[in-house]
Amino acid sequence: MAFDVKKVVTDRTAEGRSVFAEETSVEPGPVLGLDIYNIWGTDDGIPFVGAGDNPATVPYPFFPGPGGTRFVVVRFPPESAEQEEPDGADPEEIAADAERRQPGLIGVFEPDTPGMHTTDSIDYGICVDGEIYLELDDGAEVHVTPGTCVVQRGTRHAWRNRSDRHCTMVYVLVGADRKSG
């Protein structure tokens, strides 16, 4: 099934008039079997809006620092369709390629526990198509289906698509400070 993502961005002119600043198709940044559509991002800290001087998108690093945001669409393939590493493939080269395609993404994943990761962010996610399981570090799972909204608050987790088709999730990531203790 074709999946087309279109981005529409508004702004204001110096005179204060609302305008469409951008209307484009967004191509996925494929990485490790995922299709990731980087829609928009804001710099770390408190974002601002103004009259004609709004900053451009800041899509990387993938996970924002405190106060920064990212807006992404992720299409998860079925686990059965995930690409196997070719025989003789260098895992370091695969990781380096993934880092080139989606800077800041790969470093959060645990090499000994595929898919598990922890981020210093609050992630708002909504399933818009397909189904997926959200797994926590103790093995507890929730079945996520279209319309399910997830608030992920910096916990260790993994996404598992056990179905036979893609699952599409839309996320807004908000960078946070991790409280120790």
UniProtKB/TrEMBL annotation:
<dbReference type="InterPro" id="IPR013096">
    <property type="entry name" value="Cupin_2"/>
</dbReference>
<dbReference type="InterPro" id="IPR011051">
    <property type="entry name" value="RmlC_Cupin_sf"/>
</dbReference>
<dbReference type="InterPro" id="IPR047142">
    <property type="entry name" value="OryJ/VirC-like"/>
</dbReference>
<protein>
    <submittedName>
        <fullName>Cupin domain-containing protein</fullName>
    </submittedName>
</protein>
<dbReference type="Pfam" id="PF07883">
    <property type="entry name" value="Cupin_2"/>
</dbReference>
<feature type="domain" description="Cupin type-2">
    <location>
        <begin position="115"/>
        <end position="172"/>
    </location>
</feature>
<dbReference type="InterPro" id="IPR014710">
    <property type="entry name" value="RmlC-like_jellyroll"/>
</dbReference>
